[in-house]
Specification:
The protein is of the alpha+beta class. The protein has one domain: Jelly Rolls (Sandwich). The chain contains four helices and 13 strands. The strands form two sheets. Strands 1, 2, 3, 4, 5, 7, 11 and 13 form an eight-stranded antiparallel beta sheet that branches. Strand 9 and strand 10 form a beta hairpin. The longest helix is centred in the middle third of the chain and has 9 residues. The chain binds fe (ii) ion. The site of fe (ii) ion (FE2) has 4 residues, from loops.
């Protein structure tokens, strides 16, 4: 999908969809699952993932890249180490690798996707790519980042069970009081408001954004779909 096509759909940071999950039922059903630590770094922050769609449909993989930041996964798989030289070498030359995995590498549903509380996802199930349930406890966060670039092979959806327990923010190009260091400069980040619990949103993840939980058991629906998904049919 070209940037022009993408911008036609993403008129807001978060565009509400007519897909809503019953958070009470979901929380009851998800309790029995063991979540994994997210990625291999920053384990001091409570960030966990449970795959909905991964490489093989199993919840018992020794390591599951669907529950990693994929840039980090590719970096580690290529044998790079946490040195300034290796970061520079990898991130400055990402386009030269043609074997890096992205969201489209993951297409097999796990049993979690069959939970009855996730039945509202039925209309988009055939389009799902790498998708997880995230669970953050207090202080769990993702630093500013973006997940989509052009031409893109996926669209991102997002939602949470507990909008009153987390702050979801996007970067804006205007001066202000909330400044975060990204891209070696300071930018203003503005919190999204009026997020409905359990509601899925089309998420403009080509923009820089971050998220922080300030309560425990903040679940997030971290979902990617193919660009052929007729998302306009699901707008609220
Ligand atoms: Fe993101």
């Amino acid at each position: 999908m070209t940037e022009e096509e993408y911008l036609k759909i993403h008129k807001k940071n978060l565009t509400p969809l007519n897909i809503k999950i019953d958070t009470e039922l979901f929380e009851k059903q998800i309790e029995k699952y063991n979540f994994r630590r997210w990625g291999d770094k920053f384990h001091e922050y409570p960030r966990f993932g449970l795959p909905l769609v991964n490489e093989n449909g199993s919840l018992n993989n020794d390591i599951d890249p669907s529950c990693w930041p994929l840039d980090r996964w590719n970096f580690v798989k290529k044998g790079f180490k946490d040195t300034d030289e290796d970061f520079t070498e990898f991130y400055n030359n990402v386009e030269k690798y043609d074997d890096l995995i992205d969201e489209t590498f993951f297409t097999i549903p796990t049993e979690v996707l069959s939970l009855s509380s996730l039945n509202p996802l039925q209309p988009i199930k055939e389009y799902l790519l790498r998708s997880c349930i995230l669970r953050f406890d207090t202080m769990g966060h993702f630093k500013p980042h973006f997940d989509t670039w052009f031409p893109t092979k996926w669209l991102r959806l997002w939602g949470t069970t507990k909008p009153d327990g987390c702050v979801f923010r996007y970067e804006v190009d205007e001066p202000g009081q909330t400044w975060v260091e990204t891209k070696k400069c300071f930018k203003k980040y503005v919190e999204e408001i009026n997020i409905e619990p359990g509601r899925l949103y089309l998420h403009d993840s080509a923009k820089w954004h971050d998220v922080l939980a300030y309560k425990d058991n903040v679940y997030q629906f971290f979902i990617a779909v193919e660009t052929r998904c007729p998302i306009e049919e699901f707008l609220l």
